[in-house]
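Typical record was shown:
=====
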Amino acid sequence: MIIDVHYHFMPQVNEARVRMTIRHALRAAEIMGREVDPEALVKKALDTWGDPTGERLVAFMDETGIDTTVICQVDNVDNPLANEQAVMEANRLMGQVSQRFPGRILALAGVDPRRPNAADMTRVCFEEFQVRGVKYHPDNGYDPSGPESYRVLEVVAKYKGVLLTHTGPLMPPSRAKFAHPSLLADIGVDFPEVSVIAAHMGSIEWRAWANLAAHQPTLHGDLAMWDAYAFGNYRLFCRELRDILDYAGKNKVLFGTDNPIFDIVEPTRNWIGLLKDLPQNAPDGIRFTDEEVAGILGNNAARMLGIE
């Protein structure tokens, strides 16, 4: 079983959004040592990212061997185009996609907890759009365990939902101090009903995440954006992943892609293949088991999400 717990649903895209987002793909290409044409990537993104019905995603999953994908939206009150009505319409469309493909696509609503109606928005997303949880990008400027967030998390807890929250530094205007894994500590205490996925496991701050994850049964992390290092510095990736599993536990790491962003640099099927081959190809002195890899690719997420 293969489950991608981190996929950005984009019903439609425009050139401005693509050029803002493509920066992350270009950085990944640089880490991988790939020479890419930025304009060619922009064109490819414009041609392939928009997917209002989910049909493109399901075809991609069939082609790549992914059984279930968790799609998400991102809300940011600082974006003048992201008013409450537009955000809820995007969440509604995403919910429709998940209902159209039950079992294959699960949805996490984008709700910025700084919105005055954030709790009510979250409740509507659960009750009317049938989402499974919420996606946060706290590096937009809020504390994921602050009072505003707790109003939203109370709703998520009521439905025993999932919180996927960004952790780790990104390029400006991202405010990294709000994305440190240590800020998730209180959530594990005050909301034990909520399964938390720390997107990227804090990136280079993974030790802070692993220290928490080892002690908090509801805290997991995903491998989104780690493919850049897997392809760019395989030994470093294997060494870090081995340490992560040893510190946090083999059940805490989940497969994630951050797609459709990074597939345009390195096909996701190659990322899956690299992980599958870890038991055979890991460098000398580093060992992975088939059970650990199966857990990462899907079994750990299946347990967390209640998927048979």
Notes: The chain is about 45% helix and 10% strand. The two ends are 10 Å apart (CA to CA).
